[in-house]
């Protein structure tokens, strides 16, 4: 789950085959392919209902005996076999990732199996022979040949994972082991706060929500201190060794440090270039941040700058007043309506939504794809399979608003990856060389709509279907707009912290130094202690998300620039039926075959900059109110004229799950609307909300 930054300008029936049906189609792959680290048994001719998941976890017994020819394979054969092999390894890892992060029952999932599946996938991607064959075929393939593009992607991808020495491979394996142990321990950490003399167990998301909305300062402070325990825990459970080992890996490969290694692989440019961009934004918004802190203290008193007070003082009361207009039980339905109105389709995909918080569940929302979407050599379409999670507590104030933000965000990721139409699954996987900023742009553009007055006029409705009143939106704008820069600065703090962290000399990487460095960066970038302590940000732990947060900053720059484009071209975004096709054709279909900076410039006609973002931050509250009121009134009139909503069709099968329990399924329920009603009844019965 990415950061939620307020941004003003900022399923008819679901169809598609079930996961079991699509997985049940015969999959013919090359068996017993040798990869570094051991042979991996691939699956051949899996029948319908054949239990693909259990078969995919087999790494010891070959189901087919297809030997690779000793001679150099043809280009087509090489591409087809590489695609098939990667697809199975990718599924293996992602199914383990989901099972362990969601704490699913049974013996199929474990940290050891997750580590083994990740090592197998990365060993495949780091096979030097494959890179050598790729380059041999490239030298013999003309640029106009349809295979050339795929071979170039293979070359980019393999180049991101090749470990140029046994030493580097050893460091990579050590990182994976330490990380797995640390995350397993972190998932079992019992978090909470002492409230009225009793310890109340809460997840990190629950603690953060209390800090934002609880009217009792002693409760807010206790929850803030509860978040602080995460830093104490991780720095004593392996994070120190993980930082050191990550840096050893990166330096053994010739990079400045681990941050430089990660950003170069993901974005195509190094750490130095990245921070040239970020430094300009940091310096340009520092005076806005300093003035905003002074204004908050003037309005609310110096205590408003205490980290457990800042968020509440800006909008805690507003969040409570808005809560009835964002009932959690309606969140899935309103997300579906909104995406359908923008003509966003999922091309026959399947999605598992695990939205509710529970014990031992991974402490951050995410969206992953055990089955990437791609176009096969015979022209058939392989739809995506998506796993999507958040940590909602429907009984909590503000949970519905947060749920809608999360749904719009993560379902934005899902829409993006469901619409990548390229000749290999390597174009549609979320790891390097897929740009972090490119991936986050899609989700953040769509979650920004939740703060728009015209969007709220239609979708922010109470249980009596009454629209949120304008005076409440007006109060929200007055309470938050002067301080929106705090969100920008909070985003900047994470990459600046990780930059400083991986620049520490090895002998200075200690638990005490890491904790003091976090406080130092919070003070430098945010002006004081952060409401969300830097060491509680889950991204810094996992390999996929570490040195990643800069992507949110670059993406937010692109969000404002893209929104500016739509406003200038169409005049609006909410319910604009051209939004989905435009995003599909300009941003989504290409996958990682195009560079992020080029995509933004090609659509908007301008190089990426923070100008549109800064311009909004500098806009007066009075001007914002004037523009938003006009949009709100126009949307209310439009809703009155349109009458009842049409049937929702996202072209996707959706299962709403809670761990191992299936709560609703559009395939068996018959429609998106019926599944939403079923989910709503479950939530109201269980939580009374």
General description of the model:
The structure is a single chain. By secondary structure, the protein is an alpha+beta fold. 56% of the residues lie in helices and 8% in strands. It contains 27 helices and eleven strands. It has helices at residues 19-24, 52-56, 75-101, 111-125, 128-139, 146-161, 166-187, 204-213, 217-235, 239-252, 258-267, 271-300, 310-322, 331-341, 399-418, 436-447, 453-459, 470-480, 485-502, 511-526, 550-569, 579-588, 596-604, 611-618, 621-642, 666-669, 672-687, and strands at residues 33-35, 38-40, 192-195, 198-201, 349-356, 366-371, 374-375, 381-382, 385-392, 652-658, 661-665. The strands form four sheets. The protein has a five-stranded mixed β-sheet with strand order 6-9-5-10-11. It has a two-stranded antiparallel ribbon with strand order 1-2. The chain has a two-stranded antiparallel sheet with strand order 3-4. Helix 14 crosses helix 15 (399-418). The relative contact order is 0.14. The model is unreliable at 4-70 (pLDDT under 50).
- Structural category is alpha+beta
Q: What is the number of strand segments?
A: 11
Please summarize the sheet with the most strands: 5 strands, mixed
Q: Whole-number radius of gyration?
A: 25 Å
Strand order of the largest sheet: 6-9-5-10-11
Alpha-carbon distance between the two ends:
23 Å
Shape: globular
Please estimate the helix content: 55-70%
Supply the number of helical segments.
Answer: 27
Unreliable stretches covering 5 or more consecutive residues = 4-70
User: Could you tell me the strand content as a percent range?
Assistant: 5-15%
pLDDT averaged over residues: 88
